[in-house]
User: What shape does this take?
Amino acid sequence: MKPRLVYVTVFVIAACGLGYELVAGSLASYLLGDSITQFSTAIGLYLFALGIGSFLSRFIERRLAERFIDIELAVAFAGGTSAAVLFIAFGNGAWFRPILYFEIVCVGTLVGLEIPLLMRMLKDEIEFKDLVSQVLTLDYVGALVVSLIFPLLFVPKLGLIRSALILGVANAAVALWSTWVFRSRLAAPAWPRARAAAVLIVLIAGMFTSEQLTRLGESQIYADEIVFAKNTPYQRIVITQNTAGFQLFLNGALQFSSADEYRYHEALVHPAMAAAKNPRRILVLGGGDGLAVREILKYNDIERVTLVDIDPAMTDLAREFEPLRKLNNSSLLDPRVELVHDDAMQWVAEANRIFDVIVADFPDPSSFSIGKLYTTRLYEKARAILAPDGAMVVQATSPLFARRSYWCIIKTIEAAGFNVRPYHAFVPSFGEWGYALAAPREFPVPNSTIPGLRHLDGPSMSALFQLPPDLGPIDAEPNRLNNQILVHYYEQEWHRWN
Amino acid sequence: MELSRRQALAAAGAYGLSLTFGAAACSTGRKRTPGSIAGPATARGHLLKEGAPLAPGAAEAAEIVIIGGGVAGLSAAWKLSNCNFNDFMLLDLEDAAGGTAISGTNETCSYPWGAHYVPVPTRDQRALCELLLEMRVVRGFDSSGRAVAAEEHICRAPEERLFYRGEWSEGLYLKPGASADDIKQFDRFESEMRALAGKRGRDGKRAFAIPMFHSSSDPEFRDLDRISMADWLAARNYNSPRLLWYVEYACRDDFGSYLRDVSAWAALHYYCSRLPDESSAPAAFLTWPEGNGRIVHYLSKNIKNRSRFGALALSVEPRPDAVRVVYHDFTSQTQREIIAKHVICATPQFITKRLVAGATDRNSFHYAPWLVANITLHSQPESRGFATAWDNVLYESDSLGYVVAKHQLDRRGPGDVWTWYRPFCDADAAAARTKLINYNFDELTDILSADLVRAHPDLADRLANVDFYKWGHGMVRPERGFLFGGARERAAAPIGNIHFAAADLGGLPLFEEAQWAGVRAAEEILAARGVSFTSSL
Ligand SMILES: Cc1cc2nc3c(=O)[nH]c(=O)nc-3n(C[C@H](O)[C@H](O)[C@H](O)COP(=O)(O)OP(=O)(O)OC[C@H]3O[C@@H](n4cnc5c(N)ncnc54)[C@H](O)[C@@H]3O)c2cc1C
Assistant: This one.
């Protein structure tokens, strides 16, 4: 056995050992926040576990080489999969902390066993003073190297899950090659060699499927299989699929389900088209999925539909993701449709064109950045670009689950100088859903629409405007930029249901 | 901020003076944050202190010269222009107008260097209402007499959040973990402030009015100037640490002073003056990414042709029926002389006392040093708890926290600029000033990171740039006994045809005071010249 070969081994296991520590620390602070506490707890615990490992090493007395290879494989597996396991655990919620600390202690203890065992194997071959000096030197150099590679290369290029897997691969490779280095000490090298190869293959396979692993983490949150997922600078877009069809989620909130979205979108678009006189120029705010536009394009006289959605990734998806493109009938590829990627508030404030119908189809006001799109400011600016005989419709969350939020939106639109008619529709995926139809003048309840709709005809459309008592008006303040009262109402109300 | 010229000046060591600013991207080997240190053109200011040789040129004649293009000087110019009196000239030693309300811009956003908000006024603040109506920031008035401002200019929600023990919570008063007694004291304090807001003196004037000139002279209230706010609170058995912190925060923020030094009248004025009566809600704030720089730009844009920058006034001497002004022109590096019919010294009193021959004693005006940092971020730092607000304050910190420049914008994009404020409230302002002036860039970054890292552990990774601004004489301090000791009135009285205007003459470092003083000085001159005008006061 050549000492030099052994030193390579020491170097790799030292580097990996520190690597797992960094993975655990980063994950803890990344997922739990409060970096300083999380990082130092993770590292403290890890160092302590190293001590446990060193202590336990004395109980291993025979067949050191075989035990060493077993431990290497255990480290490779436990450490390599640690990040993936923790991500999935985080998706699951409650047990995250215990699992995190358990992982840290396991990996730390195993890593703590490595160096003492290795030194004991070598003590007869190398003089003790050289052994200690060289092993410890390499231990620290390995640590330095990985502590540099980790932030510069691993995390930015590979992400945490894959970084951990790579470290695992390196540990498994050490195990495999140790079956040659220490072959004179192994009774039957073939058997450990086979195990090492198996672990290596599993980890390498993991590296290529880590995208799916991230999704596995999420599928604990989403009920159905995830078929598309993407992080954009504005939101996380996820599409899931089940036997009934597919569903779009933005930041974890359901936007539509292909099975019943027609109810939602017909109710959103057609009453406004009926209330406006001769609508030809239409503005859609939000609604990058193209489904509202699909309904609008059912009218023959449309000259132009302007769609303002902040996220290009969303409109790309609507145009290119086959199931969605089919669902929206290729609406965003229609030459009459103009796509704008901008903040809706800013765009409306600066626009100097007139529209006959404005459709405001934003996600629910669950944060201040979305809440601003439901303020008097937005509605005042919208009124300035709406034709006198035009109409605006606003999706207004559920009047059943978030009744005060719903009436707050109504009050806000009124405060901006509109006449408002509240109405609702039933969408199974959402439950009872609310809208506001608004115009800068008095207007009657719309009672006729184009033929061929699935959910609406004349009489059923006017029926939407009948609110049962449990959805009826309650007190609410108008939502303004400087109070964002709607976000507070919304949070309180949905809190009750979750 | 255009620093290049000042930096060049600094590098040349033009006047052999110790310079407090300059490019900081030099020296030492540690990982450094890109950035700079700036301050009022101190080298130029020093000329005034040390006296300079006067090279006489041909004297120019002028009707009115306004010295100082801060809010006070600009407001004097505004009033004169609005009365169609356009024959004036404004001098400022800096390269742009604004004084302590200047602002800057970079690729990310505009941001303030000093003053950053004005509370929505009430109808009786006539000059301010007139200006804001003209700017179309205010549209009318509600039934209580409060101005109704256009929504986009009002500070958006969430306005404030507070960091304590690893987490942010909403508002400026620390609610999480407050005991029943804490809450009781807080409620008692709030209702006492509301009651005081409605109070009037025996002369029928409001106890605490804004501008402070309109306040009652009833000793019942004026005597509050003789005790400190700390004593006032103690006398009323306010001892909840959270409440004391909350009130002291306001005093540090508005006056650069601790409770034990600040006049109780001034502190109460902060809480009471902006409530039109007992029943109304506290005034909302008007703010913009560039802070009060928005108003400065409005006021200065139409008088560009009558403004001279890089113009350091050296002396102002009364002459029979005229005033002689000597200034150093940094563009031509010559000294010039103007014979004006009237002069407005719109400079703070620590400068005025050196400018004006025979100016009465102004030594009781004291100023708090301030450090301001503009932190440019390429992405949002991590933060736990309540969402980012406009004003983000850290409990029990020496700093005042930071204001987010993009808070008022719809189109946020990546990155942001945070303006971080750190007043030096030490009783010995001169020592604090020296300490501040001597900090180098690394020391300043250390102070900044030590303050913010608890709330944003990853701040260092998000930083694109940090620029500091050292305000040696940031704002006047209403220390105990100062407001009604007579010094302000004496300093504000014209000397011959020399008139005085600056926020510090009101004793309170506020936009409203600066504007009022500027308009008042302009009206003094209009009246003296027999020009007919409608008063804005
Ligand atoms: C950090 C900071 C934050 C603040 N925040 C707020 C706030 O949020 N809201 C608020 O209302 N107030 C705030 N203030 C108070 C602010 O100072 C006043 O509101 C107001 O802007 C003062 O205006 P001024 O014209 O009286 O004086 P200054 O702003 O000091 O203006 C004086 C001007 O005179 C010029 N000058 C000086 N000497 C000479 C000379 N010899 N020759 C020619 N020109 C000269 C200067 O360059 C300057 O432009 C803040 C102040 C500071 C320092």
